[in-house]
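Changelog-adjacent note: as of this version, every example in the card shows the full chain rather than a window. The one below runs 137 residues end to end.
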Amino acid sequence: MRRIAVLLALCIVAAAAAALPALAADGPVQQFRQDVTLGFYRGDVVSYLDFGPVKLARGNRVAPIWLVTNGVEAQRNIVDTVPGRRDYSPLWAVRTVTWTTGATPRVLRSKAAVLAAQRAGEVAVRAMSTVVNCPVL
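Full-length structure tokens:
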């Protein structure tokens, strides 16, 4: 019975500690709420933060992100790299993908699908001057 009481007390202490704000060497760390956006990476769903447009500094690397302008409701933005890959960058050069008249929109889940639809004349891809900061989680 005593062991159960000790374990229960440890659980309560651990839960209380987890509820406290994180501490840095110079005081509490301020936490912010940030919505997560879902996208596609090579057919899989990925999560990323959307911090919006940024101005590039000299030497910044960017990766493409495809935004479908007139697709189906289930469509998400598409990226072709993720953290851990050599070509990854949280800075994304926006490319719009627009379904052409007469084409039947469907969910595009990868760069390969976008390029195949472009080769088939189903979509037009346009590079934009906008760069967004959207780190993949």
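Structural remarks: The mean pLDDT is 85.
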